[in-house]
Amino acid sequence: REMQEIIDTIKENEIKAIFIEKDSSTKIADTIATESGAKVYELDTVTSGDGRLTDYEDRMKENIKVIKESL
């Protein structure tokens, strides 16, 4: 029932993108996307890495690319 409410909200508001954490399961998001017509995009939560500032910046730049693509 909750999933159907999410799908209905996505359709009613013409939402085109669903964002999920990179390396997480896509099963539920894929189901919602299939039913609603939205597309699933993965974003890096930047919670791991080697600690270099450039690593953080590179991951954030990649997230920006993904968000731009979704628009």
Explain how this protein is built.
This protein is α+β, with helices and mostly antiparallel strands and 71 residues long. It is built from 3 helices and 2 strands; from the N terminus they run αβαβα. The protein has a two-stranded parallel ribbon. The protein is elongated, with a radius of gyration of 14 Å. The mean pLDDT is 92.
Brief overview, please?
The chain has 71 residues and is α+β, with helices and mostly antiparallel strands.
How is this fold's topology laid out?
Elements: H1 2-12, E1 17-21, H2 27-36, E2 39-43, H3 53-70
Parallel strand pairs: 1-2
Task: Provide keyphrases for this structure.
71 residues; alpha+beta; 3 helices; 14% strand
- The N- and C-terminal alpha carbons lie at a distance of 29 Å
Q: Structural class, please?
A: alpha+beta
Strand order of the largest sheet: 1-2
Shape: elongated
User: What does the largest sheet look like?
Assistant: 2 strands, parallel
Strands, count: 2
* Radius of gyration (Å): 14 Å
Mean pLDDT: 92
Show unreliable segments. Answer: none
- Helices, by number, come to 3
State which percent range the strand residues make up. 5-15%
